[in-house]
Amino acid sequence: MIVDDEEAARYGMRRALSTFGYNISEAGSAEAARALLKQHEPDLLLLDVNLPGMSGLDFLREIKSSNGNGPLVIIVTAHGSERMAVEAVKAGAHDYLSKPFELDDLRLVIKNAAETVQLRRENYSLRRRIEVERSQRGALIGNSEAMQKVRAMIDKVAETDATVLVRGESGTGKELVARELHERNSVRRNASFVAVNCAALPSELIESELFGHEKGAFTGAAARREGKFEQAHGGTLFLDEIGDMSSNVQAKLLRALEERRIERLGANESIPVDVRIVSATHRPLEEEITNGNFRADLFYRLRVVTVDIAPLRERREDIPLLAETFLRLASERYELPQRSLSQGALKRLVEYNWPGNVRELKNSIDRAVIMAEGDEVAPKDLPDEITAGMPKSGIVEGDSDSEGVRVPFTADFREDRREFERRYITRCLEYTQGNVTRAAEILDMHRQSLQHKLRQLGLGRRYVSVGGEAQDNADS
């Protein structure tokens, strides 16, 4: 928006900028600009200081006081008014121009400001994504007695530097507990939280991953590399699935915990480290000790405090709150209308045993949000393992919790499942506009596995992954 009382000046600036594709509006006074701002807010405001009525400087202060995140303002001052320009910058102007100016100077200032606007948008988008991800793991969700005990334990332990062992089945949220221990009232909360999945790394690499290595320490070590202990210095190191760690690395980990020093592979000197260790496992470590797979001395060193997380099937009263939270977050993430859970869908969520725990619930809600056609998530939108046993045809009679699902029924379970998969994957690909790579991410599958499934279901001729995109191809 150009705000200048001289029509010829507005015309010249509009001509100079319109060739670059900017959408431009004009106002001859602060009052006229204020009225326009109520209709739409521009990204940039080119504001002359000398205006009839309210001055440009006063208008700048008004804009910044009412909306600190409003448009970027570039002040235009008369020649020799550098003091006025300094005042404007102090009041919140992004930049300034002094009349008379060259049109190239105007274009350059606008170009730089436009880049700042783009960075602002990207930062906002990134912050929003971080907020969504944080809320997904967020505060521990649930009011069951089991979750209240977990939160109470975290409150007691977070402020200390005690080593904590978190135990629970896969998908119960062990890393979430570790992050809560790090972030809630911990003196280490402003330092790094570094997570290592011990089960995901080959035994020959985990030592280098934890302790780092020097250049030439082994084949392929082309440069010195810091390990996770050094990266977490001053903060928290989370060792997930600690029960999968080899005996050799267990011994070195125990030594690091006791001496608070580590040695990079190939190094001759030790390095002091200050980290808090939080570990997690789904394995019964006491049995692993009996079987000779885990060191007893390391177990007792890690288990100063133990936090046990109950599986979801043992705290079903938390499922409605978890489901509603995941429903809202999924709608935001996939930019879909906010939907609610039907009573029939909620009933089946509560009745299901959830072998994958909270992680499985979240993924099921994500898929249901994508599959839903109306304002509600119905039972037919849920994965088939959750709705196993529900009627397959006709309107359900006498069940107030069911929506009634009309699905072709055959006596062949495998053919019914095949038809469900065909419809489910087709709708997912429709949602991603044929992007096989994106669909595979949503379905929690490898892209190659999805391509194989498409061929199995007779959809391979329609969807072919080419650089992540899908296209019609009769010869695939």
Any overview of this molecule?
With 476 residues, the protein is of the alpha/beta class. The protein has 3 domains: 130 residues, Rossmann fold, CATH 3.40.50; 166 residues, Rossmann fold, CATH 3.40.50.300; 158 residues, Helicase, Ruva Protein, domain 3 (Orthogonal Bundle), CATH 1.10.8.60. It is built from 18 helices and 16 strands. The strands form 5 sheets. It has a 5-stranded parallel sheet, sandwiched between helices. It has a 5-stranded parallel sheet with strand order 7-8-11-6-12. Helix 16 packs across helix 17. The chain starts with a strand and ends in a 5-residue tail after the last strand.
CATH architectural designation of the largest domain: 3-Layer(aba) Sandwich
Helix count? 18
Categorize the overall geometry: extended
Give the uncertain stretches in residue-range form. Answer: 391-411, 465-476
Number of strands: 16
Main-sheet strand order equals: 2-1-3-4-5
CATH topology of the largest domain: Rossmann fold
Beta-strand content bin:
5-15%
CATH class of the largest domain: Alpha Beta
Average residue pLDDT? 85
What is the helical fraction, as a range of percent?
Answer: 40-55%
User: Which superfamily, in CATH terms, is the homologous superfamily of the largest domain?
Assistant: P-loop containing nucleotide triphosphate hydrolases
Give the terminus-to-terminus CA distance. Answer: 53 Å
Secondary structure class reads alpha/beta
Largest sheet geometry = 5 strands, parallel
Radius of gyration: 30 Å
Provide the domain count: 3
